[in-house]
Write a structure and sequence with these properties.
10 helices; alpha+beta; single chain; Methane Monooxygenase Hydroxylase, Chain G, domain 1; 9-stranded mixed beta sheet
Length: 445
């Protein structure tokens, strides 16, 4: 027993506790923590980063096949079926492919400085026929160059502007001056944004995280802005629907016209259906825009920016554009939800009004039916009285036939006098029998 315990402690791998029954996501959850690792940047490098928006559900298969084609050209092992990321050295350059929910990114990296920043971007080394056929539509494109710099030595601003085609620069220091980042945040002649990072004292891992934050910032920023034109279109439609609702509410709150209520209710139902369709079509994009905005803010916080000689930082510049866009998205979403609620309330009010009118009609109908029942009852009592007389008349007529027969035997009585004496008896008897029969019918009913 002691030997078995000693063996378990000395050699825990394969021990009794390693046989515990594990959840199907147990291993995957740990593996997911290490997916899409940042790029270790231990020397100057150049990166061309392109994000492609997915076209449809078959985009993954087409991307996968296209990536395999590039691997075959360079005799590189292709990604495995079902992979969502792929990192490989192709000799002259590295390729990093990552698939996200709505878009895929391609990063092409070349190590070492060029004669001049952005003169020979890594994407220029990719076969032109292959890069032109990448599935999807470009949503963001950026060149990033990382160069070493001397601490406490700022480059000349005018010298840097020539690398950005003379555009006005945006700059910031990162992590208390450990690096500086420069950009115009504009598309240049090759339809790419450009970012220049001058590293002072950042370690290779710190530089890798900065590089990853800048690349993701570029993609998430543009993905967030996809919700802005959607919000503008929704706002225009909501304004038109609000005018339509206001007209209907005025009609409903005015003088009641029963002939128009069905039309008004139909218009409100059509308006509610149109709003529900608009919510279904835009809600995902609005929620995604909010999520992308939060990710942009997270990446900006990772940079830990500081100002350089009063220049606008990337965070200040980006937030100046994204915050109004986000507020527009949130306003459109709130207006749409508010409009849906107001249409529901107007529909409920109109339905209540129609139900009250129907109830009033039913009450009037019931009163009319009650009056008719009273009249019918009175008429029935009258008929019952007449029926007593009629029945008595027929009984007396039958008795008259009997008396006529008896009279022929000369029994010595007056026929007319006898009928006269029998009249009240017959009437009373028929009346008594009719009342008893009426009471019996009531008990049965």
């Amino acid at each position: 027993m002691a030997l078995e315990l000693e063996k378990t402690v000395a050699d825990p791998i394969g021990g009794h506790y390693s046989q515990l029954r594990k959840h199907q996501m147990f291993t995957a959850n740990y593996a997911d923590l290490h997916t899409r690792p940042f790029q270790v940047a231990n020397r100057p490098l150049r990166v061309s980063h392109i994000s492609f928006l997915h076209g449809d559900d078959s985009a993954y298969e087409r991307e996968f096949d296209h990536l395999r084609e590039l691997c075959q050209r360079y005799s590189i092992n292709p990604p495995q079926e079902g992979d969502s990321c792929f990192y490989q050295n192709f000799g002259e350059f590295e390729v990093r492919w990552e698939r996200h929910t709505e878009f895929s990114t391609y990063s092409f990296t070349v190590y070492g400085e060029d004669t001049e920043p952005f003169r020979h971007p890594p994407v220029s080394m990719i076969p032109s026929d292959w890069i032109a056929k990448v599935p999807g539509e470009v949503i963001s494109a950026v060149h990033i160059e990382v160069q070493n710099s001397l601490p406490d030595q700022l480059p000349d601003r005018e010298t840097l502007r020539q690398y950005f085609e003379g555009q006005r620069l945006i700059a910031s220091s990162l992590r208390d001056g450990a690096a500086t980042v420069w950009s115009a945040l504009r598309l240049h002649s090759d339809s790419f944004n450009r970012i220049l990072v001058l590293n002072n004292t950042l370690t290779e891992c710190q530089m890798g995280r900065v590089l990853r934050a800048l690349l993701e910032l570029e993609a998430y920023r543009n993905m967030m802005l996809l919700a802005f034109p959607e919000a503008q279109g929704v706002s225009r439609r909501v304004s038109h629907m609000e005018s339509q609702l206001a007209r209907l509410v005025r009609e409903i709150s005015g003088h009641r016209v029963p002939e128009e209520e069905q039309r008004q209710l139909t218009e409100l139902s059509d308006l509610a259906a149109a709003i529900a369709e608009l919510i279904a079509a835009s809600r995902y994009r609005f929620d995604a825009g909010r999520a992308y905005y939060q990710m942009v803010q997270s990446r900006l916080e990772e940079l830990e920016e500081g100002e350089i000689n009063g220049l606008q930082t990337i965070a200040a510049f980006v937030d100046r554009r994204l915050s109004p866009a986000l507020r527009t998205v949130e306003a459109a979403k709130n207006r749409l939800d508010d409009l849906a609620g107001r249409v529901d309330r107007a529909s409920d009010f109109l339905r209540t009004r129609i139900d009250m009118a129907i109830e009033a009609q039913n009450q009037a109908l019931l009163k009319s039916m009650d009056r008719r029942a009273q009249m019918q009852f009175s008429l029935q009592q009258t008929v019952e009285g007449l029926s007593v007389v009629v029945i008595s008349y027929y009984i007396l007529a039958l008795m008259g036939y009997l008396l006529n027969a008896a009279y022929s035997y000369d029994l010595g009585f007056s026929k007319d006098r006898t009928i006269a004496l029998m009249l009240p008896v017959v009437l009373f008897s028929v009346w008594i029998l009719s009342r008893r029969l009426k009471k019996k019918i009531k008990r049965i009913g």
